[in-house]
Amino acid sequence: MTTALVASLFLVACAGQPAAAGHAPGLLIGFFHGFTAILSLIGSLFLQIRIYEFPNGGFWYDFGFVAGFSTSLLALFLAFVARIGGMVT
Question: CA 44 to CA 50: how far, in whole Å?
Fold first, then answer.
């Protein structure tokens, strides 16, 4: 059993991402997709929407996605804090 697991992990490690055709999305598109990820996740329940662009530009797209998602979570947190009356006094 463990031999089959190890063999399958080796095979999965060989998998690669296809090369981007044309202009791959980068930092700004990644930021936008990250900022709208929560809405895209809800929309993907009903429509054919992906929350993550594939293929993408690599590191800078990932960086933008994480920055945009972090910004959206921070905005939601600040809106929630303002709604309940501010920080703990």
Answer: 7
| Phi, psi dihedral angles at 56 (to 5 degrees) | -125, -175
| Backbone φ, ψ for residue 38 (5° rounding) | -65, -45
What is the reported pLDDT for 62?
92
2-50: pLDDT as tens digits: 887 777 766 666 656 555 566 788 899 999 999 999 999 999 899 888 8
CA atoms within 13 A on the CB side of 48: 0
| Pair of tokens at residue 5 | 């697991």
Which residues are CB-neighbours of 49 under 8 A, at least 6 positions away? 40, 43
Alpha-carbon distance 37 to 35, whole Å? 6
For 33, counting Cβ atoms within 10 Å of its Cβ (0-12 exposed, 13-18 middle, 19+ buried), the class is buried
Q: Return the closest-CA partner of residue 25 out of 69, 68, 62, 50.
A: 62
